[in-house]
Amino acid sequence: MLHNLSPGHPGSPGRPGNTKARPPSTGRAGRLVVPSTLERAGAEYPPINAAATAWHTDSVSGNGYSRLVRTCDIQGCERPHEAKGYCHAHYTSYKRTGVPPTRPVLDTDQARFWAKVTKSPDCWLWIGATASEGRYGAATLAGHVQPAHRVAYQLEVGEIPAGLDLDHLCRNTLCVRPDHLEPVTHRENVLRGDSPSAINAVRIVCQRGHTITGQQPSGRLCLECRRENNRERTRRYRERLRATPAGAD
What we know:
Elements: E1 2-5, E2 25-26, E3 32-33, H1 35-40, E4 60-61, E5 64-65, E6 67-70, E7 81-83, E8 86-87, H2 88-97, H3 109-114, E9 117-119, E10 124-126, E11 130-131, E12 136-141, E13 144-147, H4 148-156, E14 165-168, E15 181-184, H5 186-191, H6 196-201, H7 223-243
Antiparallel strand pairs: 1-6, 2-3, 4-5, 7-8, 9-10, 11-12, 12-13, 14-15
């Protein structure tokens, strides 16, 4: 997009009293083009939207000429132009990925977040960056990277109660649908999952076939296995004593 500055504007080369103002030169197709602008209009980044076409044109007025100020060529982006037809944000993205950008920069955390969510009648799947080996989404809210489902809950429902986790009722960890999330304690969240801790918490028989009854003082341990281990340790100790000659250190 272009902004036409009058000759008296501080940014105009043709303002009164400026003896170094350069006359406009003739560009391609016989149009008048600002010399400094023409040098930056390389063929490697042609205009993308209709507004960029007017950037090649300059109108003469008074004792000088009006200057056309260029903005980003991406349709809908009003940020100042920096290089290759892009603003700073789009140009940085282009340098990092090598893929020409096509969409305007989203200015709010909420807009950026929901642009990376695919909604379906069942789950709302996160398609952005992930963490924890791809199990959970990663999103930014107020400058801090958080799990995507926690960001969705804060945007749609409100603050998460202190000390509570969000459990996925649908068991899909990439789902960010707020009504599929339930605040629970960390213990409850772990016991609802399929981790080794959750599996062992509901076991009633140990690996040796002994029945596990209730919660033991030092955790869910099989008391019969502990007794067998103690008896075996005592037996090996007594065998070492018998094999040691009398009087030997």
